[in-house]
Design a protein that fits this description.
31% helix, 6-stranded mixed β-sheet, globular, alpha+beta, single chain
Length: 513
């Protein structure tokens, strides 16, 4: 009977293990969480070891039942595991950031000027407006757009690309991803096209046909980024950058450092090719694409907060940077910009604290992953991205700017750095709150804070090529008048009277607090 019970348990465990292994793509994020944070496993192992030692020691010295030994060993396990979990929770991020900062400090190239922008392929269309254009043009009743990303066509034109994935629970099982939609990024107009070639393995499909399932089944212990839909010689591909992890140890914990591993490339037939990071530049499909992970670029630059050590990061803040959030409208730094070399990711940083000046600009080659640092002289006093947005608002005081509680109005989005005649400008797009288009584009001189407004695509290209635009001047002496101002008087919630101020003999007194 005893052997029968053991056999049944063994068979049950074997069946369970087989099921978990087959469906392992569903559990990948859970297991990867332990893999990326080995201090958790370290805490459990250390707790088991200490608890086991206590149990054996207590069992040898006690003649009573095992309950006492089990109780003490359990307490030892909880205390030991908790100590390592706390240490890991506090030290994991600083230790990882210290290693990243050391690596970047040794390998990043310091440059004297930012790379020249590709003026023939300017970045004009913001992500949210491209989303709106693509959704409004979609005519597939059983498909919908997935998350957009940036792809570059064979002519070198950057595009917002979107998968056309099955819409509806049943359709995810019976339909395929119906290709991709591409929106031209170099114009403010709706210039959209489709490649309707179906994907045998794609986005939004179930179960084994899902691209996440197939990629995680092929390589389990890597962290996949967002998918990029691209086109090469008429065929649709899905490119997925992924991160590897190297294990490190600093007393008293184990931890990992993320590294760019490469790209998982899926063709329309469902075949997966894994391209190592050092081979991306020579790959015919990927050689001109942005394949370096956005999240990794942000993580690496943010880690430079620790370049002067943990104590400086926590308390002193000397020479400390921070990647300030910018009004990206569902699109934050880093921003990808085409240069005369490869496409590059730009990350602008500000000094730690309340300062809003420009501190350093980091550029990352989106094809090779090489980091460059443009270090600014501290006496230059260049304004940062957030301050640039404020100057755009101030220079256009008559614009109906939206606030957090607004349902209508305009918002400035995606301030990106551009170089014109060796001067740094912030290119800021102003769009309506519903992302229906671009109202205008402003260029803010980072040195003088002067604002120049481009009303058309041609104005933008002319400015990037060095032609002058009219400066947007703020008339701070403009008088406040009564003309057009309507007054409504309420009493107990009821309208008592309405009138225009110009019809009454009132003087407006403007008080400056």
């Amino acid at each position: 009977m005893f052997m029968y019970q053991k056999t049944r348990k063994a068979i049950s465990l074997l069946i369970l293990a087989t099921i978990v292994y087959y469906f392992r793509p569903w559990f990948q994020e859970l297991f990867l969480g332990f893999y990326m944070n080995p201090f958790i496993v370290q805490a459990l192992v250390a707790g088991l070891l200490v608890g086991g030692v206590v149990f054996l020691a207590t069992g040898d010295n006690m003649t009573s039942a095992d309950a006492i030994a089990k109780g003490k060993s359990g307490t030892a396990f909880v205390i030991t595991a908790s100590v390592f979990l706390v240490l890991g929770g506090v030290l994991n991020t600083p230790f990882t950031s210290l290693d990243i900062a050391d690596d970047l400090g040794e390998n990043a190239v310091e440059i004297d000027s930012l790379p020249d922008i590709d003026n023939e392929n300017p970045r004009i269309l913001p992500r949210s407006v491209a989303n709106e254009f693509a959704e409004n043009s979609l005519q597939e009743p059983r498909h919908r757009l997935g998350t957009g990303d940036i792809a570059i066509d064979e002519n070198g034109t950057p595009q917002w690309s979107y998968p056309l994935k099955p819409d509806g629970t049943l359709n995810t099982f019976i339909l395929n991803q119906k290709g991709s939609a591409f929106v031209d990024m170099t114009t403010s107009s709706s210039n959209l096209r489709y490649n309707s070639q179906e994907m045998e393995v794609g986005i939004g499909m179930q179960i084994r046909d899902n691209v996440n399932w197939q990629q995680r089944k092929e390589r389990f212990w890597v962290n996949y980024e967002d998918h990029i839909n691209l086109e090469y010689e008429g065929e649709n591909y899905i490119a997925t950058p992924y991160k590897d992890y190297s294990f490190r140890f600093r007393f008293p914990i184990f931890y990992t450092v993320p590294e760019w591993g490469g790209v998982a490339l899926v063709d329309s037939d469902g075949s997966i090719e894994y391209v190592d990071s050092e081979d991306v530049e020579s790959h015919e499909v990927l050689s001109s694409q942005r394949t370096y992970p956005f999240e990794l670029a942000h993580r690496y630059v943010s880690a430079m907060e620790y370049r002067n050590g943990i104590m400086n990061k926590w308390f002193l803040h000397e020479d400390q940077l921070e990647v300030a959030p910018v009004p990206g409208f569902d699109n934050d730094q880093p921003f990808m910009i085409l240069t005369e070399e490869n496409p590059k990711l730009f990350v602008a940083t500000e000094p730690y604290g309340d300062a809003s000046g420009l501190f350093e600009i980091w550029t990352i080659d989106a094809v090779t992953g090489e980091y460059e640092l443009f270090r600014l002289e501290r006496d230059e006093g260049l304004i940062g991205a957030n301050r640039a947005v404020n100057f755009v608002r101030r220079a256009n005081s008559r614009v109906n700017w939206a606030d957090r509680e607004s349902d209508t109005g305009f918002v400035p989005v995606e301030p990106i750095p551009v170089i014109v005649d060796e001067r740094l400008y912030w290119q800021v797009r102003v769009i309506p709150l519903d992302s229906a288009g671009i109202a205008f584009t402003s260029f803010v001189d980072a040195r003088t804070s002067n604002v120049y407004t481009a009303e058309s695509d041609e104005d933008i290209i002319d400015f990037l090529e060095g032609e002058e635009l009219d400066e947007t001047v703020v008339d701070e002496e403009e008088p406040v008048t009564q003309e057009g101002i309507e007054v409504t008087i309420l009493q107990d919630g009821e309208v008592v009277e309405r009138f225009h101020l110009e019809d009454r003999d009132f003087d407006i007194q403007v008080r400056e607090d």
